[in-house]
Amino acid sequence: MQVAAPLSPNADRPPLAVGRVLREHQARITSLDFSKDGELLASAGEDERLCVYSCTQGALQKVTLCRKFGADLVRFTHDASSLLVSSRSDVDDSVRYLSMHDHRYLRYFKGHTDRVSSLEMSPKDDSFASASVDGTARVWDLRSTSCSGVLKLPGGGGGDNGASRPVAAFDPQGLVFAVALGDGRTRLFDVRGLQKGPFVTFTPDLGGASSFSCLKFSHDGKLMLLGTTMGRVALLDAFTGDLLRTFSGHANESRTPLECAFAPDAQSVYCGSEDGAIWRWQTQTGAALAPLRAHTAAVGALKFNPTRMILASACAQPAVALWLPC
Predict the structure, then answer these.
(1) Taking phi first (over 0 means left), then psi (-120 to 50 degrees means alpha), and beta for anything else, what does residue 118 get?
(2) How far apart are the C-alpha atoms of 217 and 33, rounded to whole Å?
(3) Is the pLDDT at 122 greater than 90, yes or no?
(4) Residue 306 pLDDT level (bands cut at 50, 70, 90)
(5) Which helix (H) or strand (E) holds 147?
(6) Could you write out the DSSP letters of every residue in 75-102?
(7) Is residue 158 over pLDDT 70?
(8) Do 244 and 237 contact (CB within 8 A), yes or no?
C-alpha cells in the first residue's frame, strides 16, 4: 500500500479512495484503533474476534479469539504488541490487558458494573480511562489493577440508553480528562487532581438530552467533537466550551453510536452513516463535502492513522475499508 500526501479539505470530490477491503470478521465490527506508530490496525467484532492488520501490507497479521468475554472496544497501549479490550459479556464488564505476543491476558481491570461505553489510552503515560453506562468514569494505570480515580457522573447508571451513556477522552497532552453525559454537559478534569472535581463544565445547547457516541479532541487541542446518536455532530471550542456549529445530514434513524473524527489537519470532520456512507464537512464553514461511499451497511467505527494518510472504516456487513488519497 502506498501512502500519498495529506488530503485537501476543500476538494469538491472525495479525496480518498478504497485501497483495500479486509473481511476477516464474521459479524458486526464494533471498534477500530491504530497503534501509536501507525504500523498496525486492530478491530474488534461481535464474532468474538480481535484482528490485527499490517498498515503497510494491508493484510491480516494476527487473530485472537475472545470466546469467554467477547470483545467490544479495543485500544492499543503504547506498546504495539498489547491491547486494551472491553468485555461484551453479560456477566463481566471488565477491561482486559491483552498481550498479542503470546495471546495472554496480563491484567483484568474490574470495577464497572455495566457495559463500558468509552475506552481511551492516555497519550502521555500508561494510564487509561473508561466510562460506563453504570454512571461512572474511571482512570487506571496499566501497572496496577486498582483504579486510580473514580468519577460518579450525575444522572448515570440507568442502562445503555439516552442520558446514561457517557463518553470520555484525554486531550492531546494527556493533562485534561473530558467526560460528556447525556444531560448535555461536558466536564473537564485535571488528570492530576480528579478528586477535586471538574475545573470547568460546558453546557452547549444541543437541543435537549443527547446520547453520545464519542468525544474527540483535535490534534492541536483547540477543538472538541461530540458525536451523538441523534443525527448530529457538535463542534466545541475546547477552551471556552462555545458551540461553534453542528454537522448533520447523515442517516441514523436507529440511533446507533456512529463514530466521528477530525481529519489529521482538523480542517474537515468525518462521521459514519447508517446508509453506509462516510459524511464529511468543512470545519470552518460547516459546508458538506461529497460523502465517501463504499460500505453497504452502517459505518459505526472510523479512525485516521496517526502517522500515515490512511482512514480505516468498518461496517456491519462486516468489512474494514482502508482509504488512501486518490
Answers:
(1) beta
(2) 16
(3) yes
(4) very high
(5) strand 144-152
(6) EE-SSTTEEEEE---SS---EEEEETTT
(7) no
(8) yes
